[in-house]
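#struct-pred

JT: dropping the chains for the assembly here, can someone run the whole complex?
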Amino acid sequence: MTDKTHLVDEITGHRRMRRNRKADWSRRLVQENRLTVDDLIWPIFLVDGTNIVEPIPAMPGVNRLSVDKAVEAARQAADLGIPALATFPNVDLSLRDETGSEALNRNNLINRATEAIKQAVPNIGVITDVALDPFTSHGHDGILRDGIIVNDETVDAICRAAVTQADAGADIIAPSDMMDGRIGAIRHALDAAGHQDVGIMAYATKFASAHYGPYREAISTAGLLKGDKKTYYIDPANGTEALREAALDVEEGADSLMVKPGLPYLDICWRIKEAFGLPVYAYQVSGEYTMVKAAAANGWIDEERVMMEQLLCFKRAGCDGILTYFALEVAKRLAKG
Ligand code: PBG
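RK: done, full complex below.
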């Protein structure tokens, strides 16, 4: 032993964290969290038509899919073991109006996709987003009256939309609008319609984030949206308020809670998991995905390693799963072992 190591031992005693890290076998043995295919929810974008796979420029590697192609994607995901899809419609502009009335149409794009997917691939979970923004001519998540997003009228519309989604076969309804009281109201509406087994994944803490930009390109709301969503989404500065939001959703009957966006909000994931013990999901949103893709395209980061690390970190932060546009790539990567 040299004098130098002797000195280190005097300071640290016999505590040496590196002993457990010394070999691959030992690192595997002490690894606390693991990402598996069971943690993945794959958000996909829908578009009218058949045989359409339309690239979204703001989201490299992500396409808008016609219903037949969405069914193929569902089959591919199920074969890889991905538990669930989350669907988002790019609604034809001619079908959008002030109140988002197309959301209430039992045969709208999102419901036709659910029906087709559940029929062809019954073993994959279908999670439908219930919000008015894909259907409104102004891109807001609610009904706009005199410059104000009116809460209760919006909740009423969302409840009716949720029932059509459940009628079409959705397994889980995920309201992303942040209106007050919507979770309890949707629970009542689903139960009254005989859909006791349809779950609710609450977008419990959805922040007024700048990370949604590419998504708004994907569903063509970017050019429509007037103003911002600060009167209904949570201020990114507020953690305690986010917890209060989650508490209300738990009281109102949410089956699971979502945090959105993901990576900048890991503290919220952790606090919510600790506080309620319900399943918690993070949504790694479009802007987060695009940042990784853009940096990788420039050769500045190793895309695969960053992707895997970020998703693993959601697990460490207490998440039970992650909604991620990387889901298919990750599932393929995990299948390789
Ligand atoms: C709105 C909604 C948003 C996303 C999904 N549903 C946010 C918004 O446009 O304000 C964002 C998803 C993403 O960025 O990946 N109901």
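JT: nice. The radius of gyration is 22 Å. The chain has two domains: 1-31, 37-336.
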